[in-house]
Amino acid sequence: MKIKQQLGTVTVAALGLAVVPALAQAQSAGPVWDFYGQLNLGVVSVDDGVDSNSAFTDNDNSNSRIGLTMTQALQNGSELKLTLETGLGLTGSSSLNGQDNDFDGEYRRTELRKLDLSYRTPTMGTFSFGQGSTSTDGSAEADFSGTGVAAYVGISDIAGGQSLRFADGTLSAVSIGNTNSSFDGSRRLRVRYDTPVFSGFSASVSAGQEVLKSGDDNDYYDIGTRYANDYGDYKVDARLGYSFRDSTNDLVMGSTAVLHEPTGLSLAVSAGRRVGGEGDYAYIKAGLTRDYLAIGSTWFSIDYYDGNDFVVAGSSTSSVGVAVVQRLDQYNTELFATHRTYEFDSASASYQDMDVTFVGARWKF
Fold it and tell me: What's the domain range around 262?
């Protein structure tokens, strides 16, 4: 608790140091305000090998949210930006468990996504303070497929709370969320620094703590690097992250995506592991973009996840998913459908496969 208080004090002090001189540099034009958000809802259907159930839910691949930004242009091309963003507290797909599928709203403090102040300079980079992304957030998620709203490396987001059944049909205590991970970073109360982009390369470092969930006293120190560039008809995005944790295993994760723009073909790979602990995975995803319809682009993808040593040493996890997303440009909306099969096995028990289908729509405003 003392360390958290110290981090809070440092953050407040840093905010003061950044804001006072920045406001003194403010140009005569006032700040620019922007209100934004999205609704991302659908119906998820689960077949656990014995029972089937369906429920209306929020899509935890990219949950419904609202946000507000205030951007103030400063002298010499610098910029001060304040961001407030929060989820709506709607029942999410990863929390459904087949026993309680009611759709309702319950706002909790963990819905707060961002309360962040950033100070960007053209030559020195960006300094950020408050609740927001750590430097490894997104490190495992490079992807040009366009189907991320329906399927991505976070394969448990559409069914994480669902329990697997043993081979004899009885329910186990193992949920889908226990059997896999992308080890990707998160959002926390942190201080963060991002370098400017040099020939496509950039890097960031952050230090923070989890203050919205109780029982987590870890200090989190993250390093992230990224390379993004175009090579003729090809777009490339490569990311690598390392998360230092003082009382749990460190995590390393990375991803690379390539898009061939003339054909619309894309390929993404991701991998990660616990350093000095158990659990690792590899993920591959192929995508195709087409403009069949005047209303907007159509995206297709197929992916495969392979994991080891989750839940217990010697276990194996695999999952195959297919997805299609149709863009409606006029309405700033995406219609999506995905189907995913989950398989999990350990030396001590056999489990039935689980099939999950999710259809819905995301509207951004």
Answer: 2-364
Token pair for 135: 């430097």
The Cβ of residue 194 has, within 10 Å, a number of other Cβ atoms equal to 19
- Total structural domains within the chain: 1
Residue-by-residue pLDDT tens, the chain, 365 positions: 444 445 544 444 545 554 545 455 555 589 999 999 999 999 999 999 999 999 999 999 999 999 999 999 999 999 999 999 999 999 999 999 988 889 999 999 999 999 999 999 999 999 999 999 999 999 999 999 999 999 999 999 999 999 999 999 999 999 999 999 999 999 999 999 999 999 999 999 999 999 999 989 899 999 999 999 999 999 999 999 999 998 889 999 999 999 999 999 999 999 999 999 999 999 999 999 999 999 999 999 999 999 999 999 999 999 999 999 999 999 999 999 999 999 999 999 999 999 999 999 999 99
Answer whether 0.85 is exceeded by the pTM. Answer: yes
Contacts of 83 (CB under 8 A, 6+ apart): 67, 68, 69, 114, 115, 116, 117, 118, 132
**Identity of the amino acid at 106:** E
d(CA 252, CA 242): 5
CATH code for position 286: 2.40.160.10
